[in-house]
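Appendix C: a fully annotated inverse folding record. The material below is reproduced so that readers can follow the format used throughout the book. The structure is listed first as C-alpha cells, followed by the designed sequence.
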C-alpha cells in the first residue's frame, strides 16, 4: 500500500521526476533529501553573502580524520548535488593548499546570514514603505 496514494503532495513524485530515465543507485529518504536541499539553499545564500567579502568557502571538521578540511563554494555545492543523487560526499577532496583565513565555519556563515537579515528587517521597520 502506498500511504500517499491519491495525495497530490506525494513526496515520491518529486523523486520520480528527479530519477526519470536513469535509475538512481540509492535515493535518499525523503526527509534526508529535504535536509540536504535545505543545506544547499543555505550554502548558496552563504556564498552570495560571503564570496563578495573575499571568502572562498567553508571550513568543515571531518569526522573521519578529525581534521578541518577547507571546501570551496563550488566543491561544496557539487558534493551536495552528488548526495541528492544518492552518492556519497567526497570529503577527502578539499581545496589544495588553502589559506585558512579565506574560509569560515558553517556556524559562522549561519550567524552572518542571520545577522544580515536581522539588520535588513530592523532597517525595514524603521523606514516603512
Ligand atoms: Zn577527512
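Designed amino acids, in order:
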Amino acid at each position: 500500500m502506498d500511504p500517499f496514494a491519491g495525495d497530490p503532495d506525494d513526496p515520491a513524485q518529486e523523486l520520480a521526476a528527479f530519477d526519470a530515465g536513469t535509475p538512481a543507485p540509492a535515493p535518499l529518504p525523503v526527509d534526508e533529501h529535504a535536509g540536504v536541499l535545505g543545506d544547499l539553499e543555505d550554502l548558496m545564500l552563504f556564498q552570495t553573502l560571503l564570496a563578495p567579502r573575499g571568502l572562498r568557502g567553508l571550513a568543515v571538521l571531518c569526522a573521519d580524520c578529525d581534521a578541518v578540511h577547507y571546501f570551496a563554494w563550488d566543491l561544496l555545492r557539487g558534493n551536495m548535488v552528488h548526495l541528492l543523487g544518492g552518492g556519497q560526499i567526497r570529503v577527502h577532496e578539499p581545496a589544495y593548499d588553502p589559506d585558512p583565513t579565506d574560509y569560515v565555519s558553517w556556524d559562522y556563515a549561519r550567524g552572518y546570514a542571520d545577522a544580515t537579515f536581522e539588520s535588513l528587517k530592523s532597517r525595514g521597520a524603521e523606514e516603512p514603505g
